[in-house]
Amino acid sequence: MLALIQRVTEAAVRVDGEVVGAIGPGLLALIGVEPGDGEAQVARMAERLLGYRVFADEAGRMNLGLGDTGGGLLLVSQFTLAADTRSGMRPGFSTAAPPELAEPVFNRLVAVCRQNHAPGVETGRFGAHMVISLVNDGPVTFLLKA
């Protein structure tokens, strides 16, 4: 499981012009599910998403996690994140879990994050064409692996 996280001042996901998920300050996480991902990867990724220290403390150092700040978390399934881009000029998708396997894993990640982060977890819509808008704060962007 992969997550491309971006610290944001705001982010939103639209499907067919309708906002389906939006947050203020917090993290936007684009999630790629790989074959073989399961409960262990979900638990580890949820822990990392909520605890990864990318927010400034009173001294201006990145020492606080999302759980410390109470910020929002916007989770968006993005199978292209798990693409094989090592060769050629076109991505291969054999390294991404097929939708019928990826969707339950993604949904479990959402459920675990919601259970452990009361301030709010929003999502896009699995499998839909989504338009994502964000204001990256920093910019701060990291690729997490679980």
Automatic annotation (TrEMBL):
Residues that span the membrane, as ranges: none
Pfam families the record matches: Tyr_Deacylase
E.C. code: 3.1.1.96, 3.1.1.-
Extent of motif Gly-cisPro motif, important for rejection of L-amino acids: 138-139
Domain of life per record: Bacteria
Subcellular location: Cytoplasm
Catalytic reaction list: glycyl-tRNA(Ala) + H2O = tRNA(Ala) + glycine + H(+); a D-aminoacyl-tRNA + H2O = a tRNA + a D-alpha-amino acid + H(+)
Top class in the EC scheme: hydrolase
Record key words, sorted: Cytoplasm, Hydrolase, RNA-binding, tRNA-binding
GO molecular function, one term: hydrolase activity
Presence of keyword Glycoprotein: no
HAMAP family reported in the protein's UniProt record: Deacylase_Dtd
Family matches, as NCBIfam families: D-aminoacyl-tRNA deacylase
Role: An aminoacyl-tRNA editing enzyme that deacylates mischarged D-aminoacyl-tRNAs. Also deacylates mischarged glycyl-tRNA(Ala), protecting cells against glycine mischarging by AlaRS. Acts via tRNA-based rather than protein-based catalysis; rejects L-amino acids rather than detecting D-amino acids in the active site. By recycling D-aminoacyl-tRNA to D-amino acids and free tRNA molecules, this enzyme counteracts the toxicity associated with the formation of D-aminoacyl-tRNA entities in vivo and helps enforce protein L-homochirality.
Entry text on domains: A Gly-cisPro motif from one monomer fits into the active site of the other monomer to allow specific chiral rejection of L-amino acids.
Oligomeric and partner information: Homodimer.
Family: Belongs to the DTD family.
Name the record gives this protein: D-aminoacyl-tRNA deacylase
